Amino acid sequence: MTYFLIYLLLMNIITFVEMGHDKGQAKKGGRRVPEKRLFLLAALGGGIGGWLGMRMWRHKTKHTSFVVGFPLLIALNCICVILIAMYM
């Protein structure tokens, strides 16, 4: 269970950092992080980190897919954590 919690922590940190990096790239006109990658990271356990990054940097807050999608992915992440915890 410890490794699983470390995995979740790392996924959330990575997703949070990627959101910040994408915002920085958007401001300076650089190469952006694909939305597909942001959603993949959130789906793989980084939903909370993505949502926090979205709020902190005010990034992707006008995109309905992110405003609705990230909370849904957080719910999916929570369900997965509960199921995994039940069977460990």
Explain how this protein is built.
There is one protein chain. The chain has about 90 residues and is mainly alpha-helical. The protein has helices at about 1-30, 35-55, 65-85. Helix 1 (about 1-30) packs across helix 2 and helix 2 (about 35-55) packs across helix 3 (about 65-85). The radius of gyration is 13 Å and the shape is elongated.
How is this fold's topology laid out?
Blueprint: H1 2-28, H2 35-56, H3 64-86
Features:
88 residues; transmembrane; DUF1294; mainly alpha
In short:
The protein is an all-alpha fold and 88 residues long. It has three helices and no strands.
Order of helices and strands: HHH
**Over the alpha carbons, how many angstroms does the gyration radius reach?**
13 Å
Structural class: mainly alpha
Distance between the termini: 7 Å
Number of β-strand runs: 0
Shape: elongated
Question: Which ranges are low-confidence, i.e. pLDDT below 50, for 5 or more consecutive residues?
Answer: none
Helix content: over 70%
Beta content comes to: under 5%
Major sheet attributes: none
Tally of helical segments: 3
Transmembrane segments: 38-54, 66-87
Organism: Paenibacillus plantarum
Protein name: DUF1294 domain-containing protein
Keywords: Membrane, Transmembrane, Transmembrane helix
